[in-house]
């Protein structure tokens, strides 16, 4: 039912709107981001959609239904990227959503529901250090304190205003009209490709828990301090990294997606001839099943105490700097997606999302679910991120069928 | 024979010439460094010494002997500091040397040899990223390429010229007149204090070998990439840090000082939700016995290959970015120092220096040796570095006696 060439053309056009020398970078709030949106807006208009920017700075294309009192079926994802990556992450979902609207027009299908195609603002961690601005903001879930986060002389309120939003009214945002929300996204993992499946129906979006730990030893002269008289923070932190990896690998073997990664690791004073005095590290934990995360955190608290004693360093109790619960997909929508896969003839599996998505925020106020399409080698957030256009087209067709199913309810 | 109060007064006065809020910082080439030198020059003059800056930017106070053809007895150390540390590191040796000259004058002792008191330029790693500028430069051992190293718009040649040196003639520097060189320094380690000894007679200055290793894994999405499909550079590098520590601790148990420290450790991309793709680390190795360093490097080369296989990462062969041999103290001077300790009644031990010193460079062209005095807790290169004035005075007395002994030869 959808046109794969049209999808390819749009994704290609957006890919070309990138920082030269840094493919494929289109950072939220940048001039390039606004250029990408101009393209999207023009394509929305060409598809007969009425466009607007909502209070949270989301770009929305709207098509009125025959019975608008039934509410809005919403499809979308995000067009911003991480630095040096994101040729398909987000944008594949925006274009697939747009293609559904075009396919409906092509076939002169009128829906009972209103339909909205959304490009959410700043899903990725942006210059303001936080993510999912648009999906949180649209649904009254953006913490007010975030509006004053500053980067390069601009605050987030100013950034939202610059793209056409209205930061002053975000606390009052609600979208009680959303009858159902669907997002297509690349898997950003290796499973679908490895299993030669077309579509992942996302049963749950893993909760993300970020945990900060500081290991404090003692700075000593690296030349003169005997090996057995040191309190080397890097040595203790290295043991911690290995132990975290092993604990996470064990939890990953039990049912439900689990991962924990030390992504940030900063050593002080980080000087050639000084025994490291301090390491600050940040753990990124993901759990489909909340009990796994609680078990991990309990283990971690006890374990750092043991390590501190063993290595003669101080380790403060781990701090959860952010902690989100897993978000299950809406049961009705999961069934609709399954039926849609059957109709399209797509080979699918139910699976969890290890990554966070706008869908998790919309799911707090409305029925929401998402599907994955395969991506090469499971690679994402890097230059070589790649999804085959035929796979995206299959996903778009599934969205199309699911929308038709949602509209009959 | 020496005046402890005079030593205390000078060390106190120099300590006050520091960056406010960053005790005790007097970085080479800074205005504060030049201010410290003005004080030193005035004190040298007050002690009846004739002052000059040599081509390498060293501040020298000279006293002519009765038989100048016998050559020069040289005493000295350095007045520059690391950032946020160095109340005694270096400066104790400069002031002790100056005190020897004053004590000789007090007692109207004329030497046969000429005597020079030296404040070497930039012993510490300076803004130009290299160390021992003055002692290398005085003896024709400063690599010419270093002169064009740039920091904040200034090159090293310009820096040397600014303090009164003559960078253009450094290649021709030789000091064939040095009959013997002695340096007093704080131990920067815990041994003398723990053993309640007054003086360490330094049998050898450990060779310093700096080894660079890069661990390359693969950047992956931390949320979606299963634990068993990662090539996490931080996990592999953490194992390497622990293995290096254990290998060094084993070598430290055999005769001869040995230490190895991972002091610099940089993670890329160092982002919360990305599996680390790269870690660059720098090992600082110290060996009193060269064979220990060779054994360590051999072990390391084989070990990184094994780690690379075990963790699915790439680790290039370790690179020795610098590699200095151990420097033994001059046997005759070690005996003279021992005799001097006996005369002063100082409790002493023979021991190695784990730290590098200007003495190592002078030793390449002349008989040279050094002594240590205790420092509290073995702490150095930090704000709480401390040496008791009485201990410095005992060391100065040992220098005084050793100079008298050297002069009789
Ligand atoms: N989908 C995605 O990459 N989201 C970014 C947030 C995260 O999961 O780390
Ligand atoms: N003595 C001293 O701290 N020298 C600095 C060079 C080193 O040994 O690391």
UniProtKB/TrEMBL annotation, chains A, B:
Reported cofactor(s): Zn(2+)
PROSITE patterns, alphabetized: ARGE_DAPE_CPG2_1
Ligand binding (Zn(2+) 1): 78, 89, 185
GO molecular function: hydrolase activity, acting on carbon-nitrogen (but not peptide) bonds, in linear amidines; metal ion binding
SUPFAM superfamilies: Bacterial exopeptidase dimerisation domain (SSF55031), Zn-dependent exopeptidases (SSF53187)
Residues noted as binding Zn(2+) 2 in the record, renumbered to the chain: 89, 124, 381
InterPro entries: Amidase_Cbmase (IPR010158), ArgE/DapE_CS (IPR001261), Bact_exopeptidase_dim_dom (IPR036264), Peptidase_M20 (IPR002933), Peptidase_M20_dimer (IPR011650)
Sequence positions that bind allantoate: 210, 273, 286
Keywords, alphabetical: Hydrolase, Metal-binding, Zinc
Domain Peptidase M20 dimerisation: 205-308
Keyword flag Manganese: no
Binding note for cofactor: Binds 2 Zn(2+) ions per subunit.
Family, similarity comment: Belongs to the peptidase M20 family.
Name of the featured protein: Zn-dependent hydrolase
UniProt lineage: Bacteria, Pseudomonadati, Pseudomonadota, Alphaproteobacteria, Hyphomicrobiales
């Amino acid at each position: 039912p959808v046109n794969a060439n049209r999808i390819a053309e749009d994704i290609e056009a957006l890919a070309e709107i990138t920082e030269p020398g840094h493919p494929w970078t289109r950072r939220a709030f940048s001039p390039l981001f606004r250029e990408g949106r101009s393209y999207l807006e023009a394509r929305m208009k060409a598809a007969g959609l009425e466009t607007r920017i909502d209070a949270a700075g989301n770009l929305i294309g709207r098509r009125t239904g025959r019975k608008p009192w039934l509410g809005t079926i919403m499809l979308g994802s995000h067009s911003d990227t991480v630095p040096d990556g994101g040729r398909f992450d987000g944008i594949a979902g925006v274009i697939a959503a747009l293609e559904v609207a075009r396919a409906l027009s092509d076939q002169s299908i009128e829906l009972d529901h209103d339909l909205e195609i959304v490009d959410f603002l700043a899903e990725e961690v942006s210059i303001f250090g936080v993510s999912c601005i648009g999906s949180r903001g649209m649904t009254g879930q953006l913490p007010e304190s975030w509006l004053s986060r500053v980067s390069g002389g601009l605050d987030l309120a100013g950034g939202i205003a610059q793209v056409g939003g209205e930061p002053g009214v975000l606390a009052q945002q609600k979208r009680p009209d959303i009858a159902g929300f669907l997002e297509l996204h690349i898997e950003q993992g290796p499973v679908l490709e490895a299993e030669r499946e077309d579509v992942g129906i996302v049963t749950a979006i893993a909760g993300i828990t970020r945990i900060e730990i500081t290991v404090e030893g003692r700075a000593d002269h690296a030349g003169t301090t005997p090996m057995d008289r040191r309190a080397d923070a890097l040595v203790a932190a290295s043991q911690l990294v290995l132990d975290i990896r092993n604990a996470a690998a064990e939890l990953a073997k039990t049912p439900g997606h689990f991962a924990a990664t030390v992504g940030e690791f900063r050593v002080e004073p980080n000087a050639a001839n000084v025994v490291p005095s301090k390491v600050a590290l940040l753990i990124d934990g993901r759990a489909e099943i909340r009990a796994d995360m609680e078990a991990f955190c309990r283990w971690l608290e006890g374990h750092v105490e043991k390590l501190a004693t063993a290595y003669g360093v101080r380790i403060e109790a781990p701090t959860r700097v952010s902690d989100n619960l897993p978000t299950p997909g809406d049961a009705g929508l999961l069934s609709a997606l399954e039926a849609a896969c059957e109709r399209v003839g797509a080979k699918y599996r139910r699976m969890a999302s290890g990554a966070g998505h706008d869908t998790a925020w919309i799911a707090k106020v409305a029925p929401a679910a998402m599907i994955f399409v395969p991506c090469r080698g499971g690679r994402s957030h890097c230059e070589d991120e790649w999804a085959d256009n035929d796979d995206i087209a299959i996903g778009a067709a599934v969205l199309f069928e699911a929308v038709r199913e949602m509209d009959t309810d």
